[in-house]
Amino acid sequence: MKKRLMGLLMAFTLANSVIMLAGCGANSSQGASSDADHLARVKSAGKLVIAMEGQWAPWTYHDEAGDLVGYDTEVGRAIAEKLGVEAEFVEGEWDGLFTGLDGGRYDCIINGVEITPERSEKYDFTTPYGYIKTALVVAEDNTDITSFEDLNGHTTSNSLGSTYADLATKYGATVSNVDTLSETIDMVLSGRVDATLNAEVSFYDYLREHPEAKFKIVALSEDASDVSIPLVKGADNDTLRAAIDQAILELSVDGVLTELSEKYFGSDISQK
């Protein structure tokens, strides 16, 4: 595995060098300054502005001391360090993250974003840095829902616009909007909704913190989803995406992603 990753790293480095040189050539031919290139702007500013929710453990959340921590938070810092800049985190509700990205307020989003065909039409995604399955959760005494198909005609709670809300709607459920995982679980446990969907690893993390919580996972998606970093489409972002791809590959080869995964999830979600 190590030799294969090293081979991929060498090939990726060469490919990314070609992309970055092409980007620099484009700037020169237009007689433009480095402002025309997103990576150059990031380096000039000395920071990578990263959008995330900040309240989705163990991905991105605040610890007891109030510090922003989590898998995505540490991955973001490690990527910024590879780029030679500081990581600046901006927190917000899920449905506003993409609006801010579209408006140029953030350089990227690092928030457990899964690649979907719909998102790929609008955004360019980096190399995945995680792989997760979606879990369907109901209250412990619920016997009506045992599969995703059983969601038809029932209610769920999820952040609108999320992969989980879209999947619930696809199976015929009515979705109530919530902002945090704790809120959505509370709604299930109180009986205000019938079920909820989220990353399998997020539910396991919640149960580690709240072992008394009376809910159960009744179904898992068959395939794991790719977790990646979205950037706005356009040649302007090609070199930044290539640099982030390179950083992710190096963090994988160095074992950093595995270490962070095991720290926050108790397992390695960085490998497919």
How would you characterize this protein structure?
With 272 residues, the protein is an alpha/beta fold. It folds into 2 domains: 2-131 and 226-265, Periplasmic binding protein-like II (D-Maltodextrin-Binding Protein, domain 2, 3-Layer(aba) Sandwich); 134-220, 3-Layer(aba) Sandwich (D-Maltodextrin-Binding Protein, domain 2), CATH 3.40.190.10. 43% of the residues lie in helices and 21% in strands. The chain is built from 10 helices and 15 strands. Strands 4-1-5 form a 3-stranded parallel beta sheet. Strands 6-14-8 form a 3-stranded antiparallel beta sheet, with no helix packed on it. A hairpin with a 5-residue loop joins strand 2 and strand 3 (68-69). Helix 1 (2-29) packs antiparallel against helix 9. The longest helix is centred in the first third of the chain and has 28 residues, at 2-29. The protein is globular.
Write the layout of secondary structure elements.
Elements: H1 2-29, H2 38-45, E1 47-52, E2 61-62, E3 68-69, H3 71-83, E4 86-91, H4 94-102, E5 108-109, E6 113-114, H5 117-122, E7 123-125, E8 130-132, E9 134-139, E10 155-158, H6 163-170, E11 174-177, H7 181-190, E12 196-199, H8 200-209, E13 215-220, E14 225-228, E15 230-232, H9 238-253, H10 256-265
Parallel strand pairs: 1-4, 1-5, 10-11
Antiparallel strand pairs: 2-3, 6-14, 7-15, 8-14, 9-12, 9-13
